[in-house]
Amino acid sequence: MPNFRLRRSVLRASSLALGYPLMNEASAQADPNKYPTQPIKVIVPFAAGGTLDVALRPISQALLENLGQPILIDNRAGANGMIGTDLVAKANPDGYTLLAVTASFALNPSIYKEMKYDVLKDFTPITCIMQGVGFVMVVHPSLPVKTVAEFIAYEKKSNQTIAYSTPGIGNTIHIASELFNQKTGTHMLHVPYKGSAPSLNALVSGEVQVAIMPPGIVMPFIRSGKLRAIGFTGEKRLPELPEVPTMAEVGIKDMVFQGTWMGLFGPANLPKNIVERLNKEFSRVLQQPVLKQTLSNSVAGYVSDGGTPEQMAKLLRDDVKRYSEILQKLNIQPS
């Protein structure tokens, strides 16, 4: 017993000397009724600079006043979001390790045969942060096309392979692009990258020629002339790009693809009062006019949500089923 006390004293002194906070019995078994009493870590399982990452940062700042604790964004990219997601699945359900994901979370079960977690059983839905309204089809200016019709004709006649970039295999950008191939008879080559930022850089540099991406990512490059927008996958035109027609308007039927959502989850068995507190605070800040305007400017193509945990759970269940059916139609097999 004396040796145990000595080791604990040494560990305590070392932690303090290095500036690390102590994790004692009280913090390990924190009273959920006093939540939160320490910073909250939100794991984003994608590279920094993507739409989800960009949206979460002003949201986290807005939450500080009401929660009384900072929200720390922790980017853990890799394996189409599965590396960071697995960390949350294994985390202590105390509300201090959360997960922010996109709809690729619902896609992965249909893409990968062996996953270390179950998206429907190993997580607690908290809220839908934002909902997408559509993706923009953009081309590099070196491509001699200004419309979707011109692009289709050019791709089919070209002797060179026309490539499109995505942030990886099995995400919503990949699915939207393959839907376009199926609906139009084109054969664009898929080139996956490790995250939204390198995927976008490949397009801007001309390494690939085309992409179908969330508006918020590509909007600055469209405005600067570094990319050319030719089509939109939403039900109606995007207000920020009123001159860009929808896919339906250019004659591509059944190509409405509203993009993705951004959802907040905790590990399974997250206490109900913690779920309710987080849901309430996220819903509250997402209705703030200043924050809504900030998000509108930085992540165009999305609208604030803040729905209930039950609504988030239903959205997830429905999308797991919907994407499974879409992938079967596209003949994209699990690997």
From TrEMBL:
Protein species of origin: Polynucleobacter kasalickyi
Pfam families per UniProt: TctC
PANTHER family tied to this protein: BLR1237 PROTEIN, TRICARBOXYLATE-BINDING PROTEIN
Signal peptide: 1-30
Keywords carried by this UniProt record: Receptor, Signal
InterPro entries named among the record's database cross-references: BUG, Bug_dom1
UniProt record similarity statement: Belongs to the UPF0065 (bug) family.
Superkingdom classification of source: Bacteria
Name of this chain's protein: Tripartite-type tricarboxylate transporter, receptor component TctC
